[in-house]
Amino acid sequence: MSEKQRTYSTFNYDAHARTCAPEDFLGQVRRTVNGVPLGDDQLGLIKQAMAAGLSLEPDDVLLELACGNGALSQCLFASCKGYLGIDVSEYLVSVAQQHFERAPTHRFLAQGGVAYVREETEPARFSKVLCYAGFQYFPDGEAAEILAALHTKFTRVGRIFIGNLPDKDQAAKFYRDRTPSAEELADPTTAVGIWRTRPEFSALAAAAGWKITLSTMPPTFQPAYYRYDAVLSR
Ligand SMILES: C[S@@+](CC[C@H](N)C(=O)[O-])C[C@H]1O[C@@H](n2cnc3c(N)ncnc32)[C@H](O)[C@@H]1O
């Protein structure tokens, strides 16, 4: 859609993060409510969900897609023997490398999701995959290709945790003062990304060969009313 036709705003994480202070790790990935950084209680709920969703064991090697600046990722480092985080934002990855990388075992790489899964030459090193608050920025075709590649090429991956997905059936509760168009809800370049219903996401994952378990965060998690999480297994 051309700029002229579009009636809603788009958003770019890399450009946004560059406007934040170098150590404003929460602001850089918009982990804020009305501009105020998320509190420890909310962050704690996210960390608990990631821990439960991944069930990491000491021998696990974790791949994270759309890892952002690595501020959340590093909380998982002590629970796995290896880690690679990839993100399309060169700036956010540079922040991750500067502050959180623990080479040679726990590293970050600037690359888009679909290019990465196509080009990875040692996919069998990974046993689990995380994608938190990031999957909704993959267009449908890329999302399908990534899930299929994780199933067929990343043969040792037995569990994937995909978190913080916007639920299209709940979009009206989020957009209280206006009704977004179907195009906006399906546009991965908006600030929220693509809104998918639970059945739509389940169909996407099932088409790639995955079994799916969906869950909702506790009601004390502020975005719980319009988000859901997914664990994929073989
Ligand atoms: C809301 S942030 C989440 C970052 C991190 N997972 C977290 O929870 O802190 C969304 C991230 O998705 C990344 N992203 C968007 N499109 C992407 C793509 N095609 N491939 C890889 N990363 C992408 C953005 O650069 C951004 O870092």
Characterize this entry briefly:
The protein has a single domain (13-233), classed as Rossmann fold, CATH 3.40.50.150. The protein is globular and about 50 Å long.
Describe the structure.
The protein has 234 residues and is α/β, with parallel strands linked by helices. 31% of the residues lie in helices and 19% in strands. The protein is built from nine helices and nine strands. Helix 5 (113-119) packs parallel to helix 6 (140-152). The mean pLDDT is 96. It binds S-adenosylmethionine (SAM). The site of S-adenosylmethionine has 19 residues, from helix 1.
Sequence-ordered SSE layout with sheet pairings:
Blueprint: H1 13-18, H2 25-28, E1 32-33, E2 36-37, H3 40-54, E3 61-65, E4 82-87, H4 90-99, E5 106-110, H5 113-119, E6 128-132, H6 140-152, E7 159-166, H7 171-174, H8 182-185, H9 198-207, E8 211-215, E9 227-233
Helix pairs in contact: 5-6
The structure holds S-adenosylmethionine.
